[in-house]
Amino acid sequence: MQVLRAAGAVVMVAGTDGDRRKLFHALPPGCLRDGANSKEIDYGVCVLRLG
Fold first, then answer.
1. DSSP 38
2. How far apart are the C-alpha atoms of 39 and 13, rounded to whole Å?
3. In 3-state terms, what secondary structure has residue 7?
4. According to the model, what pLDDT value does residue 11 have?
5. Residue 40 pairs with which residues in a beta bridge?
6. Domain tally for the chain?
7. Is the distance from CB of 39 to CB of 26 less than 8 angstroms?
C-alpha cells in the first residue's frame, strides 16, 4: 500500500466515526466514474474498467 500511496493511486482517509486512529485507503477524489458499460478508474495515464 505504501507504493500505491507514493504513486498517488490511493489516498488515506479518516473513518467516519470520529476515531482519528482509524485510517482507510481510498481512491483519490475524481478518479472513479461511470463508463459506458461499467465503472472506471481514471488515473490520467491509464483507465481501469471494472466489470
1. S
2. 21
3. helix
4. 92
5. 33, 49
6. 1
7. no
